[in-house]
Amino acid sequence: MPTRHRSLAIVALGVAAVAAALAGGAAAASRDEVRPVRPLALEATAPVAKQAAARAQARAWTPPSASEDRSRAVGKPNDGRLRNGLLLPAEGRDFTTFDSILERAPSREWRRYGTGRLLRVVYAALRDYREANPDAPRVLIGDLSRPRGGWFGREYGGLGHASHQNGLDIDIYYPRRDGRRRKPARASQVDRRLAQELVDAFVARPEVRYAFVGLTVGLTGPAERVQRLPHHDGHVHIRVLAPRG
Predict the structure, then answer these.
(1) Which of 34, 79, 80, 157 could bridge to 166 as Cys pair (CB 3.0-4.6 Å)?
(2) Across the beta sheet with 235-240, what order do the strands follow?
(3) At 97, phi and psi to the nearest 5?
(4) How far is CA 153 from CA 17, 150, 158, 173, in A?
(5) Does residue 106 have a cis bond before it (omega within 30 degrees)?
């Protein structure tokens, strides 16, 4: 083959190769465009989706009815145990739990067990409080009892509790004047109007035996049920009656 013809043939082959490469690239690009999302991307979004689902489930949870409730308060609030205790969710429609020792939300699971009776009172009272104060922040809930109740003293952080032993006690932080979702450090930070309405919502429940409030926060109520105690200027301590029988 003459040299000139041989050169033209080589050029033609090169052009064909380039065209084939371009066609292959276009096909690959087309495949990339319709390729499903990679598993790695799914893995990155899965935890977020799972957290959202878990939070939605927690908010939708409600305590069991009295007929379905198998939890039992054994003994006294200051010398007792909790049988088949129920875990208060980390948050609900009307509340968020708050760990006063770690200074963060939510509270650790082992600090938020109670009887079904206590949780039913909490849900009902907070629902009434929210309906009366729809613009108020969600209420912060502190300690209940340990999973099986029992001693809950200083070794578990802070001042500890002399009571909170049989699933009938709960600490609820007063709303703050600045609206922050943190426990009040002193009485001057408390929104007294909202705090009084919060206490009133609990005292209105016949199952509530005591509402222990602080010495200087200025909250009132029936003397036989609303009692003032030291170390309660940042929260109200609610105690419900044990069911009869």
Answers:
(1) 80
(2) 95-97, 139-141, 169-173, 235-240, 208-213, 226-228
(3) -80, 150
(4) 81, 9, 9, 19
(5) yes
Q: Are 158 and 100 a contacting pair, CB within 8 Å?
A: yes
165-198: pLDDT as tens digits: 999 999 999 999 999 999 999 999 999 999 999 9
SS3 137: coil
- 26 Ramachandran zone, left/alpha/beta (phi>0; psi -120 to 50): alpha
**Do the Cβ atoms of 190 and 172 come closer than 8 Å?**
no
DSSP conformational letter for 210: E
Q: How far apart are CA 241 and CA 161, in angstroms?
A: 18
Q: Domain containing 177 — which CATH number?
A: 3.30.1380.10
Whether the pTM exceeds 0.85: the reply is no
Are 146 and 161 in contact by the 8 Å Cβ rule? The answer is no
Q: Domain total for the chain?
A: 2
Which letter does DSSP use for residue 233 in this model? S
Whole-number Å distance between alpha carbons of 227 and 54: 38
- Which residue is it, tokens 């041989």? 6
In this structure, are 31 and 80 located in the same domain? no
Given a contact cutoff of 8 angstroms between Cβ atoms, the answer to whether 227 and 212 are in contact is yes
117 and 158 in a single domain? The answer is yes
Q: Could you give the CA distance from residue 152 to residue 162 in angstroms, rounded to a whole number?
A: 7
Q: Do residues 142 and 185 both lie within one domain? A: yes
- What's the token pair of residue 103? 């200074």
Token pair in block for residue 75: 């003994």
